Amino acid sequence: MAREPFGTAPDGQGVELITLTNANGVELRAMTYGAIIVSLKVPDRNGVLGDVVLGYDSLAGYVKSSPYFGAIVGRYGNRIAKGKFTLDGQTYTLAVNNGPNSLHGGLRGFDKVVWHADTMRTADGVGIRFHYVSKDGEEGYPGTLSVTVTYTLTDANDVQIAYEATTDKATPVNLTQHAYFNLAGSGDILGHELQINAGVITPVDSTLIPDGSLMPVQGTPFDFTTPHRIGERIGADHEQLRFGGGYDHNFVLIRSDTTLKHAAVLRDSASGRVLGVFTTEPGVQFYSGNFLDGTLSGKNGTVYQHRTGLCLETQHYPDSPNQPQFPSTILRPGETLRSQTVWKFRAE
Ligand code: GLA
Q1: Residues whose CB is less than 8 angstroms from the CB of residue 161 and which lie 6 or more positions away in sequence, other chains included
Q2: Which mutation among 36, 62, 66, 68 tests ligand 1's pocket best, with the greatest number of atoms within 8 A of CB?
Q3: Could you say which of 215, 264, 271, 300 would form a disulfide bridge with 44 (CB–CB 3.0 to 4.6 Å)?
Q4: Pocket test for ligand 1, best of 291, 292, 308 (most atoms within 8 A of CB)
């Protein structure tokens, strides 16, 4: 484990970069700004390490313009319709920063604040415990929210992400990790194979707010219950693909309880790298990098073209605070939110 200065955030706070390395040489680097995973180097089938996440070489890139590369997103990941919700009879107004809606926590969400960080060694690996206290009223949300996010890199090449939160007033909370994966390390992700353990999605309107229904995936381009190349059906004539500009949807995970369950498998047959995603969350937002358009230059000057990365954001459903039939995202005083997601890397 190593810590080094990584520049200064816009609010004047120093930012640190922390490097975790496991017994196999797998390396995860994360910084205190946004608890962002800056790089993640995992082996291909020949044992060659490659960086499988998109991002920038320096803090400046992230501060200037980042579509949430590698960040922890909160207080509410995904969209809240019209930036409004009513809780216990009171209406709250959030910044509208995505068409008519509020996206990913508002103007200065958890991806843009400096977190406190402690490093740790556990029985099965090395880790970073990030902590952030979001003030009552921050970005319009009620209650002081105390959040801990722990990244553990194990010697089995797992990255475990554990979330904990408490509040002093009822508030919606939906935390997720917004890494953009490219298991090949370059090119687009259309050749990656994906399997998602979901029989329905929550279909959206043209502003990507769920209409409240559940759409069975069977017989549609959204059926990833068996592995499919992402590019295979992404251009199909389907209203949901038109609304999303590709895949940008919440897949409802098949689960019988709230324990850690297999959510998805992502496979790049060229490199042999395979990512298994496990989570306690009820959904996963599969986002195929549709808004990447060649305007951002990332690590080593790489231009991030359309669909050079994809996200598998394990989370609750979008707009849950306005959709009473969805699993609740409300955290109340006295309760502790606990959530876990694990990325299991292997090569075949
Ligand atoms: C999420 C959203 C997308 C997009 C990205 C960031 O995946 O669902 O619509 O906003 O974040 O660009």
Answers
A1: 149, 150, 151, 177, 340, 341, 342, 343
A2: 68
A3: 271
A4: 291
pLDDT band for position 334 (50/70/90)? Answer: very high
User: From CA 319, how far away is CA 304, in angstroms rounded?
Assistant: 29
User: Could you tell me the CA-to-CA distances from 240 to 188, 244, 248, 309 in Å, in that order?
Assistant: 21, 6, 9, 20
pLDDT of residue 1: 86
In terms of Cβ atoms closer than 10 Å to its own Cβ (0-12, 13-18, 19+), residue 269 is middle
Q: Is 233 helix (H, G, I), strand (E, B) or coil?
A: helix
Domains of the chain, by residue range, sit at 2-347
User: How many CA atoms does the CB half-sphere of 185 hold within 13 Å?
Assistant: 15
Atom of ligand 1 lying closest to residue 79 CA: 8
Q: How far apart are CA 242 and CA 244, in angstroms?
A: 5
Q: β-pairing, 102-103 with 79-80?
A: antiparallel
Distance 287 CA to ligand 1 centre (A): 7
Going by C-alpha positions, the residue among 131, 274, 253 that lies closest to residue 196 is: 253
Active-site positions read 178, 313
Ligand 1: residues with CB < 6 A are: 67-68, 78, 103, 208, 248, 285, 287, 291, 311, 313
Ligand 1 atom nearest to 313, measured from its CA: 7
Distance 11 CA to ligand 1 centre (A): 25
Q: Dmax over Cα atoms in the chain, in whole Å?
A: 58
Report the nearest-CA residue for atom 6 of ligand 1. 67
The second-level CATH assignment, the architecture, of 2-347 is Distorted Sandwich (2.70)
Q: What is the pTM of this model?
A: 0.98
pLDDT (mean) for 22-50: 98
